[in-house]
């Protein structure tokens, strides 16, 4: 039971073929309660297909997805009762008020939703000032927040959002980011956000799951709290003997050249002193060492590699 609460979403060896081509290949990952995960990958990597399988919009060929410990395959109704999702644009009735949208969805829910719960989610998404106005008068950001309110009415343990910042202006993006962080921290909801905006994922998320060609290729700690002493960085070395230094750095990970410097990808700050000692022991002079912590650098390094 404990693991079901701490890991509300578990994807186990899921595969999917379309048109005779295997587009999702033995994919496995899980998310923790109270944390926001970015779901990243190049176009065509399988992000949307994976999300559609998780929320049971399409079937999987192999493997399983468990939501709150319930299998999508064998306990579909119980599993779906634990999910909130916006896979396309929020499904709203624009001629009705925000409150009437919430009341309508509450009536359709198999789970009893009280008027108090409706008011609670209105307050959570900070729409109390406009909730009795027609949705057609809402900004795109307000519609997105109302969509999220609809998705969390039934108190899901996992919220899944596919490109939630699409079309939002900078103010709307910032408000959505702040709201999602509050939802994860205060309500303990796990959130999976698929996005192509790496800078936004870096600001919003605790961790990021990176996929390519239908496979998970890495899971990264994004927030400083998650990284801790094991903070992952790209270490940049300016040295006297680049060729010899490159051979030594290659023992610690992937090395690339950046103008006159050598960049060691995906190492940790904790490991850098021992790398410096190895260079000095081999009589290589060090002019300068610096760090790059950009998710963008790490993401491109990972996705440019060949997937086996």
TrEMBL record:
Domain ABC transporter residues, every copy = 9-238
PROSITE patterns the UniProt entry points to: ABC_TRANSPORTER_1 (PS00211), ABC_TRANSPORTER_2 (PS50893)
SMART domains assigned: AAA
Any Pfam family matching the protein? ABC_tran
The protein's UniProt keywords, in alphabetical order, are: ATP-binding, Nucleotide-binding, Transport
Q: Name one GO molecular function term.
A: ATP binding
As for family, the record states:
Belongs to the ABC transporter superfamily.
- Official protein name in the record: ABC transporter ATP-binding protein
Species name? Alkalicoccobacillus gibsonii
């Amino acid at each position: 039971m404990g693991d079901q609460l701490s890991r509300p979403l578990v994807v186990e060896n899921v595969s999917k073929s379309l048109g005779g081509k295997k587009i999702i290949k033995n994919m496995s990952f899980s998310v923790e309660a109270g944390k926001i995960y970015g779901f990243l990958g190049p176009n065509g990597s399988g992000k949307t297909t994976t999300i559609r399988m998780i929320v049971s919009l399409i079937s999987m060929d192999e493997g399983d997805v468990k939501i709150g410990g319930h299998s999508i395959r064998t306990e579909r109704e119980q599993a779906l009762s634990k999910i909130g999702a916006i896979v396309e644009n929020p499904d709203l009735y624009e001629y009705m008020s925000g409150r009437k949208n919430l009341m309508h969805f509450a009536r359709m829910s198999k789970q009893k939703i009280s008027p108090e719960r409706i008011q609670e989610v209105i307050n959570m998404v900070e729409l109390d000032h406009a909730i009795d106005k027609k949705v057609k008068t809402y900004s795109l950001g307000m519609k997105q927040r109302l969509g999220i309110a609809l998705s969390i009415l039934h108190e899901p343990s996992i919220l899944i959002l596919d490109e939630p910042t699409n079309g939002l202006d900078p103010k709307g993006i910032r408000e959505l980011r702040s709201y999602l962080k509050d939802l994860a921290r205060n309500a303990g909801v796990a959130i999976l956000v698929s996005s192509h905006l790496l800078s936004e994922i870096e600001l919003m998320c605790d961790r990021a799951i990176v996929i390519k060609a239908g496979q998970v290729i890495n899971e990264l700690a994004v927030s400083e709290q998650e990284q801790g002493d094991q903070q992952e960085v790209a270490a940049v070395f300016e040295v006297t003997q680049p060729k010899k230094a490159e051979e030594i750095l290659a023992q610690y990970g992937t090395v690339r050249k950046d103008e006159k410097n050598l960049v060691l990808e995906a190492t940790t700050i904790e490991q850098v002193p021992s790398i410096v000692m190895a260079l000095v022991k081999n009589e290589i002079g060090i002019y300068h060492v610096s760090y790059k912590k950009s998710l963008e650098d790490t993401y491109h390094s990972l996705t440019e590699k060949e997937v086996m």
